[in-house]
Design goal:
With 91 residues, the chain is α/β, with parallel strands linked by helices. The protein has a single domain, classed as HAD superfamily/HAD-like (Rossmann fold), CATH 3.40.50.1000. It is 34% helix and 23% strand. The chain has a three-stranded parallel sheet, covered by helices on one side. The longest helix is centred in the last third of the chain and has 17 residues.
């Protein structure tokens, strides 16, 4: 059985890109992102996030900081009725 997937970049697509984001209090979601993801999820798509996180390699924040923020973001989406299937990143 094949699955359909919607792959979304994080910074600039899911949240406003403010550069080297790693704190939940700095997150501003792009207007309409929850509705868009909910629509595609209802159409049978898996929701995936892909993101380049060069701030990890540059030492601005850690893998743990990234994981904490990712978990928080997944909770925000879950509260809006959207399940993020996976988050993939490149430090």
């Amino acid at each position: 059985m094949t699955s359909k997937a919607l792959f979304l970049d994080r910074d600039g697509v899911i949240n406003i890109d403010r550069g080297y984001l790693y704190k939940s209090e700095d997150v501003v979601f792009v207007p309409g992102i929850f509705e868009l993801c909910r629509y595609y999820q209802q159409q049978g798509y898996l929701i995936m996030v892909v993101t380049n996180q060069s701030g990890i390699a540059r030492g601005y924040y850690s893998e743990e900081d990234f994981a904490i923020l990712s978990t928080w973001m997944q909770e925000q989406f879950r509260n809006e009725g959207v399940e993020i299937t996976a988050i993939y990143h490149c430090p």
